Amino acid sequence: MNAVVLASGGLDSTVAAAMARRDGYALYLLTIEYGQRHHVEIQKARAIAAWLAAVEHKILRLDLDTFGGSALVGSEDVPKNRSDRERQSGIPSTYVPARNTVFLSLALAYAEVVDASCIVIGANVLDYSGYPDCRPEFLRAFEQVARLGTKKGTHGDTIQIKAPLLPLSKTRIIQQGLALGVPFELTHSCYDPREDGSACRQCDSCLIRLKGFQDAGLRDPAPYAARVSSIQDR
After folding, report:
1. What pLDDT does 150 receive?
2. How high is the pLDDT of residue 230?
3. For residue 57, what are the domain limits?
4. Is-above-0.85 flag for pTM?
5. Which of 19, 136, 150, 184 has the most other CB atoms within 10 Å of its CB?
């Protein structure tokens, strides 16, 4: 069985990939370099592909920064130190317009080429930070697109969209990764890293990740920028 994994270099996609490997899938990783300010994750994805012993790892350059429209691909400041309540209200400026629609479409093309039966994505509904393209109804709708718009689909072969982390909190995702031996130190989640690649500790993604490790009773081994006091140090 073959699976195409959308591998960002982040914690969630790495755990999802490890789960697919556990389930017996041969992994074909696809990483999109889309002009994101946190491009250090591309290097992380290469290391993770090696750890997973992926059959193949493709890195595709796609200039979404040509459109802009997001703090991740433009000059707009990334939101920092937002409360849980603030993160749960509205769609944040780090939303990249139609990103998962574009990514899943590319993964679908790759899946047809390598005869994959599924596409694995690390989306989860509890910690999705307000992104509409991480919702389960969107993923189910795209599965119908895969069925209707591909050669495999016309032959009755299903390409499933697997989001094994969908119902899990960040803490449960971390616990699942720990059980699978995921090297968390290789993963990167920060939206606004320092020049040396260390995480900022203050963006939404850092705060959610640090809280997840704290609640799991673990220390996050990923490199962070120095700060006097943080969630991780308490």
Report:
1. 93
2. 44
3. 2-233
4. yes
5. 19
